[in-house]
Specification:
Elements (H helix, E strand, L loop, with lengths): L2 H31 L2 E7 L2 E4 L8 E2 L11 E4 L4 E6 L4 E4 L4 E6 L4 E13 L9 E4 L4 E4 L3 E7 L4 E8 L1 E6 L2 E6 L2 E5 L9 E2 L6 H11 L5 H14 L2 E8 L5 E10 L12 E9 L4 E9 L8 H6 L11
Length: about 325
């Protein structure tokens, strides 16, 4: 074959390889470059890097986490962690989490505190695991919360969706949607129990009728605007929920609500809450009618309440 054609063939092969590297490398590297990162946080929240043991730095949104890194939160602190596949984790206040593996398996050590995980379906052969000093929880794709108290030496697992395998002292049990199980150093794992509601069925329906109005968005916004005109106190702020969506939160307190009989208006107040997202709005209210005229400082009345649904205040 003439040398000219050999050079053309070699040039074409090299060009094709370079194009493949340029266009495919970012796609291949993207999931591995930042497999776990901090989406948002509230202070105090600190990070200790694997290559600098003993040194804690203030954590910041956007930081990526690698094997051996430790993240801790103080009282009131939280951190939202996101993974390359869209899975999320929320590290609660007073918690300490160590990254043990990042890809393809994700393994975390929860030394203390609580961690709620929203895990998407994993690839075959991959695992997601949260280990505490007593037990470990592993899943394929679910929503669950693991907690451990290093002072009391006990922990728990709550499952909100799917199924989680909990392993302790060589014994494994499956915990399903809506179930909870606790664990301690001395006792073997017991069968999970259904998470009990604090309200019975009849009371739950009463609460649902009381606080959820089931209106269309236009009705919600109109009602909220009406409540706003009557409010003595209002507070509003914008937050980001666990799924990364912006939520406008507004709260109003209304004294002497008009829907209450005139004789009871001095004894009543109404709390209105509006949660407004781009695709929906939720409007809730709580109306309380007391057996005496309410003071200017409503917290005085709240402290007298015994907390039982339908019961009169003390």
């Amino acid at each position: 074959m003439p040398e000219y054609f050999l050079r053309r063939i070699l040039f074409s092969i090299v060009t094709a390889l370079l194009v493949a590297v340029i266009f495919l490398s970012p796609a291949l590297a993207a999931p591995l470059a930042r497999p776990i990162s901090i989406k948002s946080l509230s202070t105090p929240c600190e990070i200790k890097r694997a290559d600098a043991p003993g040194i804690w730095h203030a954590a910041k949104p956007g930081l990526s986490l690698g094997v051996g890194d430790v993240l801790r939160t103080g009282p009131g602190g939280k951190a939202l962690l996101v993974m390359s596949d869209g899975s999320k984790m929320v590290l609660g206040p007073g918690s300490r989490l160590q990254i043990e593996e990042v890809a393809p398996n994700r393994v975390f050590g929860l030394d203390t505190g609580k961690l709620k995980s929203f895990i998407k379906k994993l690839q075959p052969g991959n695992k997601f695991e949260v280990k505490t000093p007593l037990a470990s929880a592993s899943v394929r794709g679910t929503v669950f919360e693991v907690g451990y108290d290093e002072g009391k030496k006990n922990g728990y697992l709550n499952v909100n969706e799917g199924t989680v395998a909990l392993l302790k002292d060589g014994k494994e049990i499956l915990v399903h949607n809506g179930q909870r199980v606790g664990f301690t150093p001395e006792a073997p794992l017991e069968a999970p129990v259904q998470k009990a509601s604090s309200l019975g069925g009849t009371d739950r329906e009463s609460v649902r009728r009381e606080v959820s109005l089931g209106m269309a968005k236009e009705q919600v916004m109109a009602s909220a605007a009406y409540e706003l005109r009557l409010a003595e106190y209002q507070e509003g702020k914008v937050m980001t929920d666990v799924f990364g969506k912006r939520v406008r939160l507004e709260e109003y307190i209304i004294r002497r609500p008009l829907e209450v009989a005139a004789a009871d208006q001095d004894k009543a107040f109404k709390l209105v809450v509006l949660n407004d997202r781009s695709d929906r709005s939720d409007y809730y209210y709580y109306r309380g009618i007391f057996n005496a005229s309410l003071p200017t400082d409503l917290s005085v009345a709240f402290r007298q309440m015994n907390g039982k649904l339908g019961a009169k205040p003390d």
